[in-house]
Amino acid sequence: MKKNILIFLNTYLPGYKSGGPVQAVANLIEALHEHYNFFVVTRDRDYKDIQAYTNIKYNTWNQIGNAQVRYLHPKEMNLKAYKKIIKETEFDLLYLQSFWNPKFSILPLIAFWLIKKNKPILIHPRGEFFEGALFKKALRKRCLLCAFNILRLYKKFYFNVSTKSEKEAVINIFKEITGNKIFISSDLPKKVRNFEPIISNDKDIKLVYLSRIESHKNTLELIKQISLLNIPVQLDIYGVPTNELYWQKCDEEIKKSVNAKINYKGKIAHNEVINVLKNYDLFCLFTKGENFCYAIHEALSSGLPVLISNKTPWHKMAEYNAGWEIPLEKPELINEKIIEYYNKTDEEKLAMHKGALQYATDVSNDKQILEDNIKMFESIMGNNK
Description:
Helix content: 25-40%
Radius of gyration: 21 Å
CATH superfamily of the largest domain: Glycogen Phosphorylase B
Number of strands: 14
Strand order of the largest sheet: 3-4-2-1-5-6-7-8
Order of helices and strands: EHEEEHEHEHHEHEEHEHEHEHEHEHHH
Number of domains: 2
CATH class of the largest domain: Alpha Beta
Distance between the termini: 14 Å
Structural class: alpha/beta
Oligomer: single chain
Largest sheet: 8 strands, mixed
């Protein structure tokens, strides 16, 4: 008999504006639905939307793809509702997609403990314990960590991380946690469609940024650097600002740019991403830390070389000739690499685009990722029989 996994997630399909976690969970369910039954509890609207999704049923489970999904109105995102869902749902594992989220991590945890379900808890922090991410709302996080450490609540947790460095970040926060409770298991990427990459004939180098617009993604620094370029260059920014003040700073910097054409293009529906990205020369994301980053995989899947920070798990750019990793402390190298691409011959550029597509394809075909995820779930649920 298949075991049941109960997932709490801030937004889920058909939403797409909150970025990677939505796609990560959707891909997980698509890949493993024959092994496990998945139940997803989420809000009834996309990130920052006022209107709810249409054609959903409340107070019951909706069949969405290969999962049962419970959509909650904002008034239902409370302790009483969570206690009811947790009490009435048969599950073998509680799987949280954030450590800090008040509505879809902290409250479900409190509800779980009040009911005293004897089930394991798996937390996927998704890069939240990297140093750059910890600076966001730092006071609130310090208070929560203090409470968890004093009560030693973290000893009841398992953690799902994507890299060795993220595992070290978790251990650095929870000093006494044992390594066998932290599983290195990467997100499952979508399969890549093969096609023949082409390069643009435009005179401008067309750069694209696709991610949330926030300090952790280092959007402002990227804009500042690109605005200094003296070659014909265009940067199009896609994504949702998460902080109005930070976006104002970005917008001010965009308006200051003299040589570079920098445009804010809004958001893209997930099913449109690949076709949009194919129209660019380079993907740029100078993030302060990522545990996987679907935007990078989508860029590579579009045959698009990437210019990224060295704080992601994508470390084979040189091996595949698929782009560059830039140290965070050397942002000036962003422009150096853009100029390097600009000066390449068409043949050299095309080789990079082909290398990008090959990198994405090889990651998508890596069976070890699937095996690691199954091994993680079996180890955790097997330890709690």
